[in-house]
């Protein structure tokens, strides 16, 4: 196939985002594209080769991939301003692009935070010696390779050993015995589960369960940890400086630092709804939050498809029961600031804010 042979080669590209291919070990770029008739959709990104052919846009490491995506997204945002179209349509595409990138960034930051905390919480787990490993008979030939693989993640229940192209996976039973899971036939799903084990096993959870439910459990585990951040001098300085600037709500990787003035509560930690919204809305980071209750979940502002701005609010999570209402005189309407997810990862690792 030559570049230009497919109709998709002429679609408008709104944004790109790198996605890790756990099976092959590279970063594959996806693009948010819109055709003449249709809504923007994510798809694999194809680019022309030097001889006019077509290839998948792939990168060998995360740094290169994310640097490329940042450069391309700036270019596509500028291009969209120049394309002849009705302004309402242009604004709609800009909003949908913003929503799509926010979702990707939120997912990436959240899982990076969870991985950092998983490794921190299991830092005391010793790296097993090859001679100490319990293996089935068919796994015995891979004893040394397994020990090498476990050096980086000694707490996982599933791991790949040997060269990436060999696609050999091993898993540990509840009895602590390692066995070969796949030999020469590891598929994408299996590779993804092994990657998820790096996070889930750090919290003693099963990576094969529904991933959304696993991460919901992790958020519950992390909330007390987030509360402990309020005791760190570096975090106190961050919050004191924010309050001096008039900032009372800071959002970062699903964690919300919330300043409660009434009752002299001071700073406390809440969580977000992970930025989830239906297809008819898009998050809007320039809105405000109205709190009519003391719910622990913060729903961020969003914009409806018709352009209506909806204020954020607070509520309790499902199964929490109704949130304690505020007196109308104590309703709070305040703006919020979104912080870089890297900051939260640093704070969870107790790295100094300075």
Q: What's the rounded overall pLDDT mean?
A: 83
The span between the termini is 53 Å
Could you state the order of secondary-structure elements as H and E?
EEEEEEHHHEEEHHHEEEEEEEEEEEH
Instruction: Tell the overall outline.
Output: flat
User: Could you give a short account of the major beta sheet?
Assistant: 8 strands, mixed
What helical percentage do the residues reach? 25-40%
Number of separate helices? 7
Poorly predicted ranges? 275-282, 350-354
Reading side by side through the largest sheet, how are the strands ordered? 19-14-18-15-12-11-10-20
Tell me the total number of β-strands: 20
The computed structural class is: alpha+beta
Radius of gyration (CA) equals 23 Å
Strand content: 15-25%
Describe the structure.
The strands form five sheets. An eight-stranded mixed beta sheet has the order 19-14-18-15-12-11-10-20. Helices cover about 35% and strands about 25% of the residues. With about 350 residues, it is an alpha+beta fold. The radius of gyration is 23 Å and the shape is flat. Mean pLDDT is about 85; it is low at about 275-280 and about 350-354.
